[in-house]
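Most newcomers find our protein records easier to grasp once they have seen one. Nothing more is needed to start thinking about how sequence determines fold. Here is such a record, shown just as it appears in the course material:
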Amino acid sequence: MKTLITAFSLIFALACFSLIDGTCFHSQVLAQQAGQVEAAAGEAQHEVKELGGLLPLWSVFPFLGILLSIALFPLFAPHFWHHHFPKVSAFWSLAFAIPFLLAYGNDALYAIKHIYIADYIPFIILLWGLFTVSGGLLVRGKLKGTPLVNTGFLLLGTILASWVGTTGASMLLIRPVLRSNKTRQNKVHIIVFFIFLIANIGGSLTPLGDPPLFLGFLHGVDFFWTMRLWPIMSFISIILLGLFFIIDTILYKRERKPAAFEKEAAAGPAVKEEPLSVVGLYNFLFLGGIVGAVLLSGMLALPQINILGVHVEIQNLMRDVLIILMGILSMIFTPQDIRRENEFSWYPIKEVAYLFAGIFMTIIPALAILRAGEHGALAFLIKTVNQPVHYFWAAGILSSFLDNAPTYLTFFNSALGQLLPGVPEATAVPDLMTTHQIYLSAVSCGAVFMGANTYIGNAPNFMVRSIAEESGIQMPSFFGYMLYSIGILIPLFILVSLIFFM
């Protein structure tokens, strides 16, 4: 424990040094820009300079620190982590924010305000709304957790994810899956494949499925264009479903042996199949309201308002208010008995809110450097991305650890700049969807599919893991989960590269 704290303190010191050192290193650039900022002060008081071209690569140390905390503390200090993870998140947030503010002043303050007002708050509101509404939908009855039933659940969730979002589908089905497999001895693989398929890959067919595709929709990609990803999504989903069925069948047969029966009897009565029924069906109206609010925000083009110096579109505020309203209505109309029977608790959403508050803060330099493209510290990476397979892997690997929405947008714009230089976006995007569709497919699949590589690759991953652990399943650690993704997903992604993007 002392070793971990010492190591994190060292990273904190290095982060402070690197950010301040980065200011000194780029002092001439800042001096040149100072005149420009002063001249523009009358027009935009809080105009932000392109920090991505100024920040050193070392500025991502606090982000690496929070990732290591998520990975190591539950493994080596689980009791401490369970009770103090909000403080750890706050520690890494301050480890970045204090030197960042000292080094870059108003520009840093604007960057922090922008990521919380424009990104984090809407992100948490959407997750909270989907989590609250889906928690009011109770699937009564039990299906015995056989390989066929479990594969059916995964198939259903994979289909639903593109239409109600990966978060909506995950929250709707995770509890029925857990109940059906309550007496199963081997459950971890079920949750891992659940994350692979329902929390990620299943959301690739519409802009409602995953945030990166919604961003593409906002930038002119046709709503139904993503249906063209059907062959790729089907290819990888069928392989994963087949592989899951084989693994689950082998483990299920082992559990049926006499020795296993004794352990099962000691654990409690076996699950008896009961007809399925859904209680709280009115929550589908609230779920539809959330989906409609998200879709409407992409179709309207209303004026902006200024919130603490950050310009926010009115339609986005309307979306957030509608989502909150849907969640409140669900809480009012859903009896508490239904939520209790559904084993509903607020802990998973609280865990996501606390940890992602730190992740969004510390991710600022990583995203800024990425957006700077060839002018940032990751120029060496951006310059090597010029073929569809490069876009697939670059967007995918970065989406495994960073927010996949801005990562998608970065490589979306990179493809436009490389293939259609100087062409206005309104003209270039239709050409990207047709003449150069393989590039757009590569970026879309990489950002959505590879969110399954880590727990933080997509928000539902964390929520599913948290709910599974609350039910008593000991889920793999951060790196333990990655052993599954490296062993199962990476070979499949290589195969996808060879067949679809080479």
In short: The longest strand covers residues 304-307. Residues 136-280+334-343+384-501 form one domain. The beta strands are 138-140, 277-279, 304-307, 310-313.
